[in-house]
């Protein structure tokens, strides 16, 4: 039955590959969104953008709040996975 099952499942392999790729992309996106180093870099970029006049101080403050919340959430999740 192994060979027959493999032959029957063969047409589904591309679909399974796409699903697995989507899962890997989601995992990587989540990892990057919660990477403390990346978040700290974005915080630095915000300060530089505000100093250069690209964004207002209010925009910087709002975006900083969002980034700090993500950073704290990431640290909480790391603490739970190690605890």
Task: Name a few traits of the molecule.
83 residues, mainly alpha, 4 helices, 86% helix, elongated
Give a brief rundown of this model.
This protein has 83 residues and is mainly alpha-helical.
Describe this structure in words.
By secondary structure, this protein is mainly alpha-helical. It has a domain at 36-83. Helix content is 86%, strand content 0%. The chain is built from 4 helices and no strands. The radius of gyration is 21 Å and the shape is elongated.
What is the C-alpha radius of gyration, as a whole number of Å? 21 Å
State the oligomer. single chain
Along the chain, the helix and strand elements come as: HHHH
Question: Gap between N and C termini, in Å?
Answer: 45 Å
Q: Give the integer mean of the pLDDT values.
A: 88
Low-confidence stretches: none
Instruction: Please work out how many helical segments DSSP would assign.
Output: 4
Strand content: under 5%
State the shape.
elongated
Could you tell me the number of beta strands? 0
Helix amount: over 70%
Q: What's the story with the biggest beta sheet?
A: none
Class from helix and strand fractions: mainly alpha
Write the layout of secondary structure elements.
Elements: H1 2-9, H2 13-33, H3 36-51, H4 57-82
Helix pairs in contact: 3-4
């Amino acid at each position: 039955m192994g060979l027959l099952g493999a032959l029957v499942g063969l047409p589904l392999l591309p679909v399974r590959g796409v699903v697995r790729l989507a899962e890997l992309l989601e995992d990587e996106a989540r990892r990057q969104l919660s990477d403390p180093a990346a978040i700290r870099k974005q915080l630095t970029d915000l300060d530089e953008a505000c100093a250069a006049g690209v964004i207002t101080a209010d925009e910087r403050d709002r975006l900083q709040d969002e980034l700090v919340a993500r950073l704290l959430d990431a640290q909480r999740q790391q603490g739970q996975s190690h605890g």
